[in-house]
Amino acid sequence: MKSNPIKVALIGNPNTGKTSLFNQLTGLKQQVGNYPGITVERKVGSCSLGDSKNATILDLPGTYSLNTNSLDENLVIELLLNKNDNDYPDVVVVVTEVENLKRNLLLFTQIKDLEIPTVLVINMADQMEKKGISLDIPKMEIALKTKIALISSRKATGINDLKKIISNYQELSTEACLNASEIDSDYFENLKRIYPNQQNYKLWLVISQDVNFGSLNKTILQNNSFSKSDAELKRLQHKETIKRYQFINDILKVTKKTDPTIATDFQSKLDRILTHKIFGYVIFFGILFLIFQSIFDWSSVPMDFIDEQFASLSSWVSEHLPPGKLTDLIAQGMIPGIGGVVIFIPQIAFLFLFISLLEESGYMSRVVFLMDKGMRRFGLSGKSLVPLISGTACAIPAVMATRNIENWKERLITILITPFTTCSARIPVYTILIALIIPDTRVLGFLNLQGLTLMFLYALGFIMAILSAKILNSILKFQSKSFFVIEMPNYKIPYYKNVGLNVIEKTKAFVFGAGKIIISLSIILWFMASYSPKDAFYTAETTISETNSSLSEDEINDKIASFKLENSYIGILGKSIEPLIEPLGYDWKIGIGIVASFAAREVFVGTMATIYSVGSHEDEVNTIKQRMKSEIHPVTGKPIYNFASGISLLLFYAFAMQCMSTLAVVKKETNSWKWPMIQLFVMSGFAYIVALIAYQLLK
Amino acid sequence: MQTTVDQLKKGEKAIIVAFNLDTIPLKLIEMGCMEGHMVELIQTAPFGDPIFLDMNGTHLAIRKEMAKEISVEIIEN
């Protein structure tokens, strides 16, 4: 008989290997989603414990304590306080690591106080011998009133012991291991009187900070003589922390031994180089160069392969399906549209690979440390660099990554400027436009001009981000205190499973997210291009052939196709915005592409493919690039995508805020529509002006 | 000798004697900033700020403005 799975929550300080343990327990059986209403990632997986028992494992965001500083940490405490939550765990697994045991145990003692069955995991046990650390586990178990699993999440040792403890979680003690209320007995007794049914430590958590806890009515407290001011509460929290550390120190004194002769200083030697005044920067920029090299150069082989595959899929579909407009939609609109996204898998995978390597190895914190002072000049924090770098993959996780910037002004500026960095959604647009307008030649013998242009666009995005930070820094007048604290974790060799799973999951999210939008948009566009409010649209074939009988059949078909496209719903819409974009050098078809891009930039290529396929009568299948190249301006007779209009379009995409998902995330993170609206109008307005100037100068 | 953390030299070790509870965030206290704990300056960033500390075994970086609020007693070697 199968029983209900045991609900397990993984909790721990950042950098304790919590995610490695999660991956070790669940493997590929995990789902990543968002908590409803907030943008905190929710990772759940299932795990077999043997004896036909199963567990669902919830990986909670890393936190240093139950005194919360951020949205992510808030979530941990709100879950642990709410027994009615669906995710409320049967058993909590607190993950700590051998070297930082003292600090990691602080969180453990807090969770123990909540009287939930709690297991203590001590990770990186394989390092103990090397570091000269020995632990007296039985003694520790008694003192901490728990069961301990000594594991190595990387070498997969001790995992079975942990599973055994989890499946017998009912045997775990739920007794607190120290009495926190001793820090002010009078105060806690008074609390007990007012809320007789609540557990003391829960009460204290709710009172001392801003978290929601269903039934508790905080207003009663405000009229009470013994209530404490914020400063007094902080003093008590300080006392509480000291008490916990005393407790932990006393235990570790008798259970943990470190042999000082073995301790190596390899870590500090590494730091002396990696955070060095000169070498530090050289190494950092070297790594950045390597990342861009991989995106622009190494990715090209798999990308060409994918391109060919999709082109042959297109022609296979058009050969094997009955000819007609619907087949055209599939073969020339949807497949190239999806191909236009799939082709970027290699680049996106490389980006996420490097970003997770930087994070996993502990190097990212050193970059923050190196760059903090310089970034502060622009109203940013060293921590802004993480969002700016991950913004080259996607602005959405980048905006979320600003959460650990403590200073609100620095954080807000970082959020506002992040969309300027060149995200992966811009790559499809850039690549195709560059291929159209920049010759494939080499300058100085070895630099590829097209690659150089792409690099220039990345630099442009970054420079714009920094400049706008500087401007925002002088405009935004509010003062907020800086609480810059960052842990500098030990260097680690990145764990392949963590990196691999992260790359797969992020790439999948990008492809499916974009894929959905592209398919639905191309269907909408196809309908809008195939129907019209005007009667003339449906009689176009006969009227045009009659009035132009002197022309050849091909020319007549061309005329019909373009007449119908111009008089369809989409043509009418496009024509109505044409006056606005004509000074930038675009025709109404590009206009439609731009409008569609406000959903997400990468749909530009698919949109153009759909529009051009409907507007053509030709049977042969061309790649989108060939179609775009052969587009001729009806008035000037020149190619639509010429140097001037191409540059103007590139600049427009570099600066305009065209991503609904980013706007939605910014709204959530800033809790107001004001900031995303400012981004939308200021960035897009600026993009328009720059594109206008560029076209008028170059044409 | 008594001083503040921002004045420490590279490799210098000290014991925390007091800190300003109003300006030091709870997070730093939880990471080990409390009276009696040892602190060592490991590295300063280029341009002298922020500073890289070993505080009670935890490696962390803080800005000088915060380090100024922590008084320490330097341990003589």
Automatic annotation (TrEMBL), chain A:
- Cite the FeoB-type G domain residue spans from the record: 5-172
Major location category of this protein: membrane
Q: Which UniProt keywords apply?
A: Cell membrane, GTP-binding, Ion transport, Iron, Iron transport, Magnesium, Membrane, Metal-binding, Nucleotide-binding, Transmembrane, Transmembrane helix, Transport
Q: Which residues bind GTP?
A: 12-19, 37-41, 59-62, 123-126
Q: Name one GO molecular function term.
A: ferrous iron transmembrane transporter activity
A GO cellular component annotated for this chain's UniProt record is: plasma membrane
Compartments where found: Cell inner membrane; Cell membrane
Transmembrane stretches in the record are 278-296, 335-358, 378-400, 412-438, 450-472, 509-529, 643-666, 678-698
Q: Which residues bind Mg(2+)?
A: 23, 26-27
Described by its record, this protein's role is as follows: Probable transporter of a GTP-driven Fe(2+) uptake system.
What family does the entry list?
Belongs to the TRAFAC class TrmE-Era-EngA-EngB-Septin-like GTPase superfamily. FeoB GTPase (TC 9.A.8) family.
User: What is the official name of this protein in its record?
Assistant: Ferrous iron transport protein B
